[in-house]
Amino acid sequence: MIRLARAQLPEEVAGRLAGLTERLRTAPRASRTTHARRMWRANPDRKALRTALTAMAPGRQHCMYCGDNQGTDIDHHEPLSRNPLRTFDWLNHLLACSMCNSHVKRDRYPVAADGTPLLIDPTVEDPFEHLVLALSLGEYHPLTAKGRATIEVCGLNRPLLTRGRVQAQRVVVYCLREWARARSAANRARAVLTVREQPFADVCQSMLRQAVLPRADLVFSDSPGVVELLRLPELRAALLS
C-alpha cells in the first residue's frame, strides 16, 4: 500500500453524484442502505469513476490495497452498509481487486474508541507512517494501531502477497543494476518502466525510503551496491515521479 494522489472528477460527474447523495438523504433511514445499493447498481457514472481510479492506481491499474491483483472493482472505503450517505462520495472510492473487495476487506471498517477510523486510506495519508515493510520477508509490521488494523483487515501478509513482494524486490534490484549498466537514456528509461509497471509498487517505495535511513547497509547487505544506487538523485527522481 502506497500514498496515492486523488484525481479530480469531471464537474458534470461530480454534480450528478452530489445529486444522488441528496436523493439518498430523503430516503427513510430504515431503508436507506437498500436504496443506496439499488441506486449504486443503476449508476451510469460507475464507468467514469473506474476510469478516474484507474488513472490513480499504481503500476498497471493494480489494487490500491494489496498492490498485486488487477483492480477491477470500485470499493467503498467506508462500507455502504455502514454509511450509505457515502455511497456516491468520490473521496470514499478506491480501486480494488475482487479478492480484496469481496473476500478479504468486505464490509469491515474498524474504528477506535473515539470513532476514529483505523483503516488506512492511501489517498488521505501516507501508509508508511503506520506500516513498515520487512523487505527480506515481504511482510508488513505495524507502527501504529491503524497499521495493525489495516494489516489484519486487508490481509496484507497473506502468503501469496509476501512471496510476491520478495520476488518484486529481486526484480527491482535487477532493474537497478541494469539501469547502472545502461549506456543510453532509452535503456535506463526501460529499466525504470519495468519497475514502475510491475505489481507491488510498495516494495520499490519502501526500498527508496529505507535506503536513506541509518543502518541501511544492513538492510541491503544481501544486495551489494544497491544502497548507493537507491540514493542517486537522478534515479530516485525517476522512480518517484
Q: How would you write the strand order of the largest sheet?
A: 1-2
Strand content: 5-15%
Q: Would you identify the regions where 5 or more consecutive residues have pLDDT less than 50?
A: none
Distance linking N and C termini: 17 Å
Helix content: 40-55%
Number of helices: 11
Q: How many DSSP-defined strands?
A: 4
Mean pLDDT over the full residue set = 94
Shape category = elongated
Protein name: HNH endonuclease
Keywords: Endonuclease, Hydrolase, Nuclease
GO molecular function, one term: endonuclease activity
Structure description:
Keywords: Endonuclease, Hydrolase, Nuclease. The chain is mostly helical. It has helices at 11-25, 32-41, 46-56, 98-105, 145-153, 159-181, 185-197, 201-210, 216-219, 226-230, 233-240; strands at 73-76, 93-96, 131-134, 139-142. It has 2 domains: 11-153, no CATH class; 159-240, no CATH class. It has 11 helices and 4 strands; from the N terminus they run αααββαββααααααα. Strand 3 (131-134) and strand 4 (139-142) form a beta hairpin. Helix 6 (159-181) runs antiparallel to helix 7 (185-197) and helix 6 crosses helix 8 (201-210). It is elongated.
